[in-house]
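Hi V.,

Quick status before I head out on leave. The structure for the redesign project is tokenized and pasted below; the design run finished overnight.
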């Protein structure tokens, strides 16, 4: 008989004659002639109650079941007389797969996030993290659904690259050389002898490669892991994270902002409808204002204002910031959150940033001072999307590369995309983990990644 998922049982409108449940024991308690076993198989937040009576041949073994033990239970489904549950299962046969020892670390009590990070291999078994990673799974699907329904093409961009999209230099190097005895040329490491014949790194973005496909296929998106060797221990940064990066041909900055707003609204609304049970846990125990925040996102049109106006608002606010605000300063998280949480009380899109603080590929505006860049700012997170209209004019792109110190010969293929049939195009990047933080109310990026990679931490 095929295993019956507990989610299917609990959501069923009518009783299923026979069920085969396989899962883990959350709790067990005994009465005179019965044992009540709460079982969860990871398919949903709620457990199912199994009633095993003393007529079962292995009843004495059943009474030895501990939290974390694994079982296979064949039985019948019945309406439950108890509060808070529609169905329960009466066991006909209970197979004990494994009895967990008494030192099982996830007993029936609340554990701190800090403790659970030390046992990341076990934390998905908790209610909170099981719910978080189910939501992560469903939102992964929703991302593909959004773009596929719009006719976008999914492109797998490389994880190993020879270019630095952002120009920040915070890259993880990939090499096959013997680090104890690397080949030398003129006193320096000879990368001609390396696997690719030049320096190679883990990617920080699939954008540049994505642009090449947008200029061939029209509208594309990438969704995959990216890496940044930034020695930061903040709650918003990790060394390995996932990015969603659509690129749209014949699309200007206004269109880019429209796509970004629509995308965020779609994902949040999807989570509210598709993950309601799991979201309820976070609304009750993690962030009491979570549902109000999410409702605001889906119901209100995002505020749009130029960077210069955002700077003026911040300077007029009278707020004491840790970082000074002036035209030409990169807005910090404290500035972004003030605008979204304290001033506008809703998501904000800031656009037309000074070109001095933005990468070479962003289109220069007619004022020659700003670029057609935009950031989507949301409450509690700050920036969740960064995007721009890309510079489609070859001469302007070459000039910006020279200004920012990006070697033309290293990106000859990127320049070719402007040399042969260039068109206006735009795109953005959404930090997937920040989306999960927004939707769940979780405040630390380490708690929305199954196995977080941060400075000094690469366990599991």
């Amino acid at each position: 008989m095929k295993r019956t998922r507990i989610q299917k049982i609990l959501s069923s409108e009518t009783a299923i004659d026979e069920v085969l449940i396989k899962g883990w024991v959350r709790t067990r308690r005994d009465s005179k002639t019965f044992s009540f076993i709460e079982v969860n198989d990871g398919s949903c937040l709620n457990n199912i109650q199994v009633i095993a009576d003393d007529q079962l041949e292995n009843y004495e073994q059943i009474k030895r079941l501990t939290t974390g033990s694994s079982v296979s239970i064949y039985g019948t489904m019945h309406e439950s007389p108890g509060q808070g549950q529609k169905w329960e299962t009466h066991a006909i046969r209970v197979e004990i797969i494994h009895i967990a020892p008494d030192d099982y670390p996830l007993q029936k009590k609340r554990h701190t996030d800090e403790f659970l990070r030390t046992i990341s291999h076990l934390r998905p078994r908790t209610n909170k993290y099981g719910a978080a990673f189910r939501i992560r799974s469903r939102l992964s699907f929703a991302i593909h659904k959004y773009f596929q329904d719009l006719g976008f093409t999914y492109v797998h961009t490389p994880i190993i690259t020879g270019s630095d999209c952002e120009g920040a230099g915070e890259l993880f190097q990939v090499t096959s050389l013997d680090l104890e005895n690397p080949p030398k040329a003129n006193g320096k490491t000879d990368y001609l002898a390396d696997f690719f014949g030049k320096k190679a790194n883990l990617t920080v973005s699939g954008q540049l490669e994505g642009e090449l496909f947008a200029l061939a296929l029209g509208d594309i998106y990438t969704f995959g892991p990216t890496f940044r060797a930034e020695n930061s221990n903040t709650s918003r940064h990790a060394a390995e994270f996932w990015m969603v990066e659509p690129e749209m041909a014949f699309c200007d900055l206004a269109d880019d902002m429209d796509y970004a707003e629509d995308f965020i609204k779609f994902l949040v609304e999807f989570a509210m409808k598709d993950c309601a049970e799991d979201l309820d846990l976070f609304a009750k125990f993690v962030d009491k204002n979570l549902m109000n925040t999410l409702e605001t996102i889906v119901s209100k049109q995002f505020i749009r204002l130029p960077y210069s106006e955002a700077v003026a608002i911040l300077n007029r606010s009278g707020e004491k910031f840790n970082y000074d605000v002036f035209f030409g300063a990169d807005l910090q998280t404290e500035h972004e959150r003030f605008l979204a949480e304290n001033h506008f009380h809703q998501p904000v899109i800031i656009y037309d940033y000074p070109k001095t603080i933005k990468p070479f590929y962003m289109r220069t505006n007619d004022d020659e001072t700003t670029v057609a860049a935009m950031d989507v700012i949301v409450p509690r997170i700050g920036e969740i999307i960064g995007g721009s209209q890309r510079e489609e004019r070859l001469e302007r792109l070459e000039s910006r590369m020279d200004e920012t110190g990006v070697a033309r010969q290293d990106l000859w293929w990127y320049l070719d995309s402007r040399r042969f049939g260039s068109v206006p195009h735009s795109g953005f990047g959404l930090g997937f983990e920040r989306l999960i933080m927004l939707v769940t109310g979780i405040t630390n990026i380490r708690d929305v990644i199954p196995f977080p990679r941060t400075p000094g931490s690469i366990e599991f």
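Above is the designed sequence. Residues 123-168+204-447 form a domain with the BirA Bifunctional Protein; domain 2 fold (CATH 3.30.930.10).

G. will cover questions while I'm gone.

Best,
W.
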